Amino acid sequence: MPSAAAAHVVNNGAAALVLVATALAAGKETVISRGEMVEIGDGFRLPDLLVSTGARLRSTSGSAARRPVTCPGRSPSTSAPPRCR
User: Fold this and answer.
1) How far apart are CA 63 and CA 1, in angstroms?
2) For the segment 22-76, what is each residue's pLDDT rounded down to a tens digit?
3) Is 60 among the domain residues?
4) Would you say 77 and 29 are in contact if contact means Cβ atoms under 8 Å apart?
5) Gyration radius of the chain's alpha carbons
6) What global pTM score does this model have?
7) Alpha-carbon distance 26 to 23, whole Å?
């Protein structure tokens, strides 16, 4: 059996999102597409979950365009690179 110093087990994607955002994005800017700002059941909205972790949200357009772009507007305080297409 493999050994681990620590582990977290969650039973849904929202819980995993909260754990990751708390660890990596607290106090930082997080880029999210407007198309991903959805309600996931029982009134939980993904933007509200992310904000509850201390992340600052920055929305991008939810355009269906699929051409490469240079991701303008990324600042040093952004917690992760945006998903550019």
Assistant:
1) 46
2) 998 888 988 888 878 888 878 888 888 889 999 998 888 755 555 555 565 566 6
3) yes
4) yes
5) 15
6) 0.60
7) 7
